[in-house]
Amino acid sequence: MGRLVVIEGLDGAGKRTLTDALTAALAEVGASVATLAFPRYGVSVHADLVREALHGAHGDLGDSVYGMGLLYALDRRGAADEIRALRAGHDVLLLDRYVASNAAYQAARLRQGADSEVVRWVRDLEIERFGLPVPDAHLLLRVAPEVAAARARGRAESDATRARDAFESDDGLQARCAAVYDELAAANWLSPWHVVDGADRVDAAALAADLLGTRLP
């Protein structure tokens, strides 16, 4: 069975870029790699409801922390069998966002930390009740919130299909989310966390070698 590795970080941190670089570096050394990104917009009805709510649809749904958290969780529950199959069939499965995203964003929305009730609720719901696979490792792509925000703005300006949603355009939320991510990483929440400096050029080859080892440093 392959390693399940989750890439986490703020909107605009560069998770997709890191996923692509790691995929290429792992393939270069002969490892088979699969990738999956959450939310699964255009694939999952729950993910599409999330996107619509974040752009003002469905009344006050977007204001509900637990309502939105449940939709994110249901999106992943719908992908559970696919995650297991991809993990079984490849050396590494890279996930762009996973359960920790739900924990970090919902805690930040409530202005709470990693030890809060909503974080425990996310874990109980997604891992215990829904039975989602536990990651082998997390990579936190850490960038300053203002840098991530600038990247997200630039992405939206250059690509009309990637307009910023309510979460992405809330600078205060992004800053609080960054703090929760740091707390989750410090606590090695669910599995070991490795912090990657997103402000510098990431050595994808070295990181790929770490991922193929028994554990991350």
Automatic annotation (TrEMBL):
The UniProt keyword set, sorted, is: ATP-binding, Kinase, Nucleotide biosynthesis, Nucleotide-binding, Transferase
Pfam families from the entry? Thymidylate_kin
Q: Does the keyword ATP-binding apply?
A: yes
Query: SUPFAM superfamilies, from UniProt?
Result: P-loop containing nucleoside triphosphate hydrolases
State its Enzyme Commission number(s): 2.7.4.9
Residue intervals of the Thymidylate kinase-like domain: 7-188
Q: Name one GO biological process term.
A: dUDP biosynthetic process
Catalysed transformations (reactions): dTMP + ATP = dTDP + ADP
Q: Which GO terms describe its molecular function?
A: ATP binding; dTMP kinase activity
- The enzyme's main class, written as a single word, is transferase
GO CC entries:
cytosol
- The protein's superkingdom reads Bacteria
Report the sequence similarity comment from the record. Belongs to the thymidylate kinase family.
Q: PANTHER family per the record?
A: THYMIDYLATE KINASE, UMP-CMP KINASE 2, MITOCHONDRIAL
Report the protein's function.
Phosphorylation of dTMP to form dTDP in both de novo and salvage pathways of dTTP synthesis.
What is this protein's record name?
A: Thymidylate kinase
